[in-house]
Amino acid sequence: MPTRNLRVAPTVAPVAPAIDPVLAALTALRDEMEIPAEFPRPVLEEAAEAARRDVTDGREDLRDLPFVTIDPPGSMDLDQAVHLERTAGGYLVRYAIADLAEFVAPGGALDTEVNERGMTLYGPDVRTPLHPAVLSEAAASLLPDVDRAAAVWHVDLDETGEITRARVARARVRSTARLTYEQVQARLDAGEAGEMLDLLREVGLLREERERARGGVSLNVPEQDVVAHEDGSFGLEFRSTLPVEGWNAQVSLLTGIAAARIMRSGGVGIFRTLPAADPRDLARLRRTAGALGIDWPQDVSYGELLATLDSATSRHAAFLNEATSLFRGASYAPFGGTGQPAGVPDDVAHAAIAAEYAHVTAPLRRLVDRYGTEICLALCAGDEVPAWVRDALPGLPRTMARTGQRAGSYERASVDIVEAALLAGRVGDVFDGVVVDVENDEERRRRAAKEADRAAKDAGGALPGPEVQEVVRGQVVIADPAVRAGVEGVGLPLGEAVRVRLREASIERRRVGFELA
């Protein structure tokens, strides 16, 4: 089945201990998953020493450019700052990225710790950062009105938004504003954003067109957000992404595409990969479209169809949810590292982006980006890629797979806990919802076979009754509270409104379950 599209929003204020069972369950979850509560003392000492150093000397001075950051409310770990301008031939996109290599000494205590953590983990009550706060929320973060060390990408685009040239170099920058997506969208809608943010929309729209032309896709599935309230309680809400979030994401994507080109040319790098969808999955998705009453002509591509859908429509939301099942098997492909054969491997494109692509824009929150950035800096400067980078490349896919799986499991379990808390005491109540996912025939047959085996063992070898085959499992979305959970029933109607009865809500078991009413 498709994965849940969720986001644990940054905690703006300290969470008061108002809901002890929830906090206890979240603490138990972190203990169970061995998520560290703090950094070891040697790591903190090394980070503090690095934060005291002035790492901005000797760099190109770009402080006259009014870079801005655009992030969710309350964010302090600011990886990226953007500046755009119109040129005679199109556009110049400058993207400043926090320069973590200036703060993390290869082989030191901090380097060892961040290689163990892999990425920042976001929980409802606490955030488990990749780097200590003295770096991730202070010295290395691109906060406004302070000088910062950055790796600045300069990407030239033609009038259609196509990349014509790209380079990256170290520079000193000074962000002029810390903006939120909501602020930028409101200014754009009111016509009060100013030239630079107007260009963000213009370039973002062009890059979305280029994405569709390549055969790439972007899924606008509503996110399920966990929100921490000042009284210590937690809430859930479904939030459709704003257009500016997509335009801002296109800047990161074009930077990652440019980085991949530089890596390919230099013969050393690490690509983010995603295999093409299985034709059988695409055929199944076409059948789903038909069942939902969505017209999908044979001459319309997958990406073109997605661009016409509105996630606010229940049938469209159900289809978009099913479409996430095509995005499976993402990995990393390093090449040119120590002990690796020369040349770029085959089949290293990212199918959803429809291009070769590298992660280089979020080094405060994701380990691999520091290495990718350092590769591109060296290649653009005509220098040798540092040995510590080449040595690390072969092992990075395993590290990122391990830590990425942990991050996904942690966020899903955290949301499960909050969902159960919101519904505690309401077992037996009936809710309005929409079925957004139903297990397919193969999944149902496998489950039925397992249940039949268990039933036969429990019955001493007797065959189970026909009811084992009749129950279908799926996922239902409830608007109030904003919950997505499992549902069982006979003949679940995909994409349709239903009445469901809550049959389980357990904080301790991190489980919520419904059945058709």
What can you see in these coordinates?
Strand 11 and strand 12 (234-239) form a beta hairpin. The chain is built from 15 helices and 19 strands. It has 3 domains: 6-275 and 329-421, no CATH class; 276-328; 424-516, OB fold (Dihydrolipoamide Acetyltransferase, E2P). Helices cover 38% and strands 23% of the residues. Residues 10-18 have low confidence and may be disordered. The protein has helices at 20-32, 41-52, 109-117, 133-139, 181-190, 195-214, 243-266, 279-291, 302-306, 314-323, 367-381, 387-392, 396-423, 441-458, 467-470; strands at residues 6-8, 60-61, 68-71, 80-87, 90-98, 121-122, 127-128, 147-158, 163-174, 177-180, 223-228, 234-239, 269-273, 331-335, 430-438, 471-478, 483-490, 497-506, 511-516. One of its GO terms (biological process) is mRNA catabolic process. This is RNB domain-containing ribonuclease. It comes from Oerskovia douganii.
